[in-house]
Amino acid sequence: MSPENRNLYWADWNREAPKIETSYMDGSNRRVLVQSDLGLPNALTYDSQSSLLCWADAGTHKMECMNPGRDHRNMVLEGLRYPFGITIYGKNIYYTDWQRNSIVEVDQNAEKESDEFQPQKRANIYGITTAYAQCLPGQNYCSVNNGGCTHLCLATPRGRSCKCPDNGDSVGCVEREY
């Protein structure tokens, strides 16, 4: 998720046609970002500091990054074993590896692994995330009075979108865009 540009990003693990997609946070403007040369892109992260969307692919054994607004992909590292989770902090990318049962640090600039952490308890490490000491700057149109929405308030690049649950008609819900 990218709060500052109000987009969602996800990887589709479809074994015949894997892809990486995006949409606005309200689900509108859905589009495919990457659909070629993918195997099992099960690790995906967006770094708001660099505006990079990065993924690790357990099928192709590669780590790649791109700016979602452009088509160019940059190979960061090849020869990964079985990556599962990924996050970025500064110039480093951290990913979990199920075959190594570890967290691996990758220096983006040098395009090579720089460190590895193996917990005492050896097991598959699932997700990994970066927790910043301070919240990233930005405006949340939904934070005051639920953005004027009766039920769901979802951010869009243009502002916000009010959405209803499945039974919205019966609970007096009103859908609109601001």
Automatic annotation (TrEMBL):
Q: What PROSITE patterns has UniProt attached to this entry?
A: LDLRB
Tell me the domain of life: Eukaryota
Gene3D superfamilies, alphabetized: Laminin, TolB, C-terminal domain
Q: Where are the LDL-receptor class B repeats?
A: 6-50
Q: Which SMART domains match?
A: LY
Organism ancestry:
Eukaryota, Metazoa, Chordata, Craniata, Vertebrata
Q: Matching PANTHER family, A to Z?
A: NIDOGEN-1, VITELLOGENIN RECEPTOR-LIKE PROTEIN-RELATED-RELATED
Record's protein name? Uncharacterized protein
Q: Which InterPro entries match?
A: 6-blade_b-propeller_TolB-like, Cueball_EGF_LRP_Nidogen, LDLR_classB_rpt
